[in-house]
Fold these 3 entries.
Entry 1:
Amino acid sequence: MKRFLLILGLLFATTLHLSAQEDDDTDDNESIRDKMTEYIQKKLDLNDQEAKKFRPLFVQYYKDWRSTIRENRGDKLVLKQKVAELQVKYRDRFKGVIGEQKSNQVFNHQRDFINQLREEVRDRRQKNGRRKN
Amino acid sequence: MTHPNLISVELLELQSSLAGKHRQDQVFTVPEGYFAGFASTMLLKVRSIENNEELAGLSPLLSGLSRLQPFTVPPGYLEELDPMAGLRDEELSPLLSGLKKKQPFRVPEGYFQQAGLPAETNELDSVSPLLGSLARINPYVVPSGYFESLDPLVVIGKKPAKVISLGSFNWKRSVAAAAVIAAVSFSAFFFYNRNGDQPTATAVAVNSDTVPGSLESTGNAQLYAINTADAAEISKLVKNVPDQEIQEFLNETDNGESDIDDALLN
């Protein structure tokens, strides 16, 4: 019985630990980040070679973008400045991989994606409201 | 031939003309035992002739040589021969022959009998009188069979360790444990990986100032007007992403994006 309880305890501890890790991983909304990357790659019509190089660069940009927003949330003007600086910085990096024209479009597609997410949330809420009624 | 009567009788029965005639005695006789060694004698002769002829054909010189050993050793010569017999000690080893064959060290008569306990006692007395005065008898005595009956674990006050046999594996208990573990694992897996298709009660309200609908009213709708196909594509992409996760993402990034949008719009 003692052995059984010990195994059960270890199992729970492992499960909790794994779930905690998952929470840590999803701090940056990895699934949304991946969907966003996928959408932008498609909109930019990147070939396999470009996509292979672009993806890690965009992931890095996404992390920096999230941390910039977190760090400068209190001051909107500074936030604007910091985000703009970040995007200019990464636009130059993207340029080396996907060219100048496409690198300018990256942030437009990012914005479109986020706006559509807002629409998506609103639609879901409306649908759920109808179901409840 | 040894039974002439029988032969005569047989000839009579056959009515042969030879039956009436008497046989004459043998003129020639063979020495006694002549044929006993005949075969071997003849074979030896044949072989000797053959060997000689063969050797003569190969080498007439060798066949002409006598087959007798020219050198002879006196009888008992090799048995009596000793290779060292003629050598003296000086010839064998001058160093060893120069050594005296006498023991250089000697022990006085009765030395070991005299040098015994009394001498040692005297020496110990001179070094340590106290130790010398002590009796050389062990004051402690162990009862007979004491160590044979002694159990070391009992002496140190410990119980013998429980022996668990590896062979007594309880299958039923193990299977039950595995079933419970599997059930808990699956429950935990589904609990932590539940899909967000169902809306959650913790969804946070969207800031109405930032939704595209309100921005459209500003007259810059073309900037936010997303192609219907793109909208459908994005909806399809995030179909399996839970509401809560999208909402958290929007809440966190809302300021950043809306401010950039404002900057772009103004």
Entry 2:
Amino acid sequence: MSLALLIKDEMNGFYRSKAMLALFIGMPLVAMLLYFLTPDLEGMPIGAFTALMISSMAGLLASTTLAVSLINERSNGVYDLFLVRPVRRSHILLAKYVAVVACVMIAAALALLLANGYDWFNQGAVELTALGEPMLVTITMACVSCAVAVLVGSLLKSVLAGVILTIYGGNQVSAVIVLTSLQNIMSIEAAAIIGLTISAIVLCVALVVFNRKLNS
Amino acid sequence: MAVDHVNLTVEEGTVFGLIGPNGAGKSTIIRSILGLIPYESGNVLVSGTDMRNANAQRKLKVGYLPQKAAFQEWRTTEQALQILGRLSGLKGDRLKSRIEEVLEQLGIEEYRDRKVSKLSGGTIQKLGFAQAILHEPSVLVLDEPMASLDPASRFQFKKMIKELSDSGTTVLFSSHILSDIEDLVDSVGLLQSGKVRYSGPISGLEKKAALRSELVVELADERGEWRSVNLPGVDISQPSPGYLLMHIDDPERWDATVPKIVEALVRAGCNIRSFNRHNPKLEDIYMAYVGGSN
């Protein structure tokens, strides 16, 4: 019961924070801008370009936001007031994770739809099945980097160290996983499964850490 | 180790004050009571429940005001109370009316729609108090609740604690502002360097400290050989001209000793203008304990 309440509350928090603005409006905007400014795209449609942009940006934005808010709230003692109520520690962490990943998914879908809508408007025909792959890549990357962010957020006290570790540990690792599929070492589905498994493991470790050293 | 072999008992329905200098382990004890930090051995039970267990809070309602209450900054005052109330199991109209009540009780209705990040320290502390009593807990734990408040707000907090206690709430609060403790608590625990130095009623603390009651004598003039007065168990000094301060070692023998002192002073030629009993304040006892070991 408390988990659902906490997820809703986290989503509400994201909705009210500026990070969300960057995710929902900034991401499609930057994708558009880069598309028109990049000199040689060899006729790449904006839909495909946006997909590429989003897969690298969404996870980054979401994971750093997650790590920073976790470190800040932990060190301020925000969770103490939650924990003297019937709330499990693990639910606090899970709620944050689920809320962020959900927001990334919505934002990614929105940006992709917008870009492909533009293509459709200009060229008339868009292959909608082509949307599946970038979405899968984006979700996998977001899951991995957010799991790392949650772990970093539970471990560290310094926001700066947290951000650096999240970017390098989370985002780059998630990129490595996805790149294997782009190099045709394995299929995108296989890469996604590996990525999601890794995020699950990291998330479990984070939960154990968070349970133990919430305040120290 | 911050706290070692602490044994404290708080009776149901009473107000218990945890006092001690900074770093004595007050917050550590409070946080282990609430199950917020792990401890290596021993038990902390609230009404027989170990608060580290996540289900404990379902059975027993505990209110907690930390030293520095913190809320997510994107929330408004009302939103902060809403989520914490919901997590405590309050819903719908009940939640709404409770929020109205606590906002009014603490006099922060005007900040209802203001974001937490734009509130002053004192108002955040009041919001902290509001969330602590929002779900009408049977046990209220306050960690230095009045440290950052102005005198008016301090008075308001004290009044509220008194009212809650009268309505049957068990209150545990820590402080190093001793006048707060003195007015409010039924019993005290005195902590120093992570150890309990005393636990029990304040009157017992006075006795245990073996602090001597004092008799202050005002003299009309400088004549009189008060230095020649020599009584067993009585220690005379002159803190400032015209005044004599007498320590009586055994307060039990006060009634028998005081007439002897007066008689001896008169015989020594002192002109007594007035005399007054000065009982030890908690402050003195505290200093005797804390200062004595340094």
Entry 3:
Amino acid sequence: MKRLIAVCLAVVLVLGLGGVAVVANSDSHTVTVQVNAINELAIEGGNFTLTINSATAGSQPDPATDSTTCDVLWTTNEASKKITVATSVASPPPNFTLKVVAQNVNGGTAASEVTLSDTAQDFVTAVGTTIGNCDLAYTASATAAQGTGSDIHTVTYTITAA
Amino acid sequence: MKTVTKFLILFVIFGLIATGEKAEAAIVFIDVTGSWSLSIDASDLVAGAGSDLIDTYESASDEVHIDISVWGRGSRSWRVDVRKSDSSWHGNYHLYIRRTSNGSGWGSISGGTSYQEVTDTDQSFFSGNWGRSNIHIQLRLSGVSVQIPPNTYTTTVIYTVTST
């Protein structure tokens, strides 16, 4: 009889423990974030004219400069980028020289001042996964021998692979 | 009292304890439908070139639906926990979740109506009793910036319902 009671108790305990077992069930879904390449560049400011109209006697005409009218802004989420600059006027420029350099650069490193040509040249380097901006500092110059006239440049800045 | 009678009394008492309704747990099932996909590009810049990406994105309020069904005898109360399991997630991202509807059904539902961050560890999301269907779930992602390189980032949100 004792054995029978022990067996019954064991059965009861097993059933009892089974009755309080915690039951869990799971299901899921995914969250996907696709980040596309972003390489945006914009120029703030507008068209402007550099006028060379003075000189010191015995010297070449004074250069004309502007470093306040235009800024370049950029955003990139890719690494190893740079910004290049080129002009629409074919090399060599038919009349005068136009140079540009980046000033007060945030989000990159200014390249040396470049004489604009229709071949892209480095303007800001070491650009990557960043927001940036800089001032555009232009210098136009002419020699007395180049006489008078005008050049109309369309200057293009491009963010590209370094 | 005869031994046999004693045995029968003991058996009945223990049997009642074992099969008592309070001690039983019904089986609770959870069914999740939907997913959230987000594509981020230059149109998400706050103010174009020179600005960062919008930091926070929100899914539709009914992006994900949850159905909960209860089977068997015993307690009809349950609790839903939530966690995530990353496969290619970015450490800067923070994922939040909230319940935007009560769904429908016999029982009650409570909690989970304010955004809470989904982490890699189970956290209590909401609870209720009896079956509920068509419970709406909304998700929110924050921590987005241009410092996160182009890629496809994925995590799995796991819901676990437990009988309580």
